[in-house]
Amino acid sequence: xxxxxxxxxxxxxxxxxxxxxxxxxxxxxxxxxxxxxxxxxxxxxxxxxxxxxxxxxxxxxxxxxxxxxxxxxxxxxxxxxxxxxxxxxxxxxxxxxxxxxxxxxxxxxxxxxxxxxxxxxxxxxxxxxxxxxxxxxxxxxxxxxxxxxxxxxxxxxxxxxxxxxxxxxxxxxxxxxxxxxxxxxxxxxxxxxxxxxxxxxxxxxxxxxxxxxxxxxxxxxxxxxxxxxxxxxxxxxxxxxxxxxxxxxxxxxxxxxxxxxxxxxxxxxxxxxxxxxxxxxxxxxxxxxxxxxxxxxxxxxxxxxxxxxxxxxxxxxxxxxxxxxxxxxxxxxxxxxxxxxxxxxxxxxxxxxxxxxxxxxxxxxxxxxxxxxxxxxxxxxxxxxxxxxxxxxxxxxxxxxxxxxxxxxxxxxxxxxxxxxxxxxxxxxxxxxxxxxxxxxxxxxxxxxxxxxxxxxxxxxxxxxxxxxxxxxxxxxxxxxxxxxxxxxxxxxxxxxxxxxxxxxxxxxxx
Length: 511
Ligand SMILES: Cc1cc2nc3c(=O)[nH]c(=O)nc-3n(C[C@H](O)[C@H](O)[C@H](O)COP(=O)(O)O)c2cc1C
What we know:
3 domains, binds flavin mononucleotide, single chain, alpha/beta, 22 strands, eight-stranded mixed β-sheet, 434 Repressor (Amino-terminal Domain), Rossmann fold
């Protein structure tokens, strides 16, 4: 693996973004200090999550103070959301016109007072800020102080008759695009990891769809406690981003990991998210996307059917992610037992034929993503003496053997991809139990599709789970992704689709 020299990295940074008008010293400093750069990008966990690699790899970069060449582009892309002029980054011009709502939850720890500096810095931007304090936080700083700094009411009580006339706890959970918990205590991590909602802060976190960032700070022994480690892992897996605590001398006199990072770097990280959000918010504006998800079922008689184990989770996460990024999403779903995502249009179907009919009715569309596990066959019941059975009524038990003839269902992906209404981009999922990539690649070619997402479903893997391990197969490209949550797969897939759209536009211009 090639490792770039620091001067090469700096050169690439410089050329790539042409930051001639910002402070060169800051960038030189960051490129000489991979740990600092990773910290500004949100810490080991956050960067590993964004780049879809193991946190141990990032720890290694920090140790050797180098970034491998294969990951450099991706790090540069991530860093492009940072204003590298770290001393003079506020207020950012880009943020002036941005209507962005943020909620700060302050918990009770030795670093609670530092959240006041975060409020002061946020007030220099045009971000609209609400603040919630836990009961313990009020032992360290007062709501009056927060109210004066934020020039707005500070929320402290779940059972406030006055606030709850407007279901305030739900409004506070739903309104902000970003919730920052800083400092996050071991206690709030444990509460959210275990679904507790016994005060305003924990209830908001449980009721929110928003991006949640935790900036924990605690005694090093608390941070390394197996319970906290487990809670951290759980929250990471559910899509919470962590700004990792710093290492050094603690207020309690001990030394280790658990220090609250500088308010400025916490805000830097949040602003990088705001910028990313700003870019992604309208990334798929005016783009129509049709997604199939879940299983289909084929009835044998009025009370029996054949189907498969697909839960619909992966397709629903993709629908949700693309909707968030501005796409006009129509979701065609087979029968599932999970809540529907927020998207423009949802159509519920049962059989493969119904799914195909509805997909066809929704054309033309810019992008088609077939994640549904469509039943390959219908089963036609027969007796052993080859007499067809009336399947309009419940099939009765007789002395004759019951046999089934199979009838092939339509291949939705192939039918649409080979039709003259073929969307610009067609993406298929391929669930396999053996020769996964070989089978997926031959499907890619025979069905005329742009991208296949292959997954191994042997031994009950994937179906119904919250995690997925996928490979992406294109005609001239192959990517194997780490195991990650289906939410995270949806996030990275949306980035991939954006790249495919850019390439499509380039081809269109050159044609
Ligand atoms: C002086 C003092 C300092 C504390 N500092 C921290 C801290 O830095 N981090 C932490 O997780 N807990 C700390 N605690 C413990 C929390 O205050 C306690 O777990 C509390 O229940 C947290 O409540 P909250 O999560 O609702 O804010 C501290 C407690 C005291 C008395």
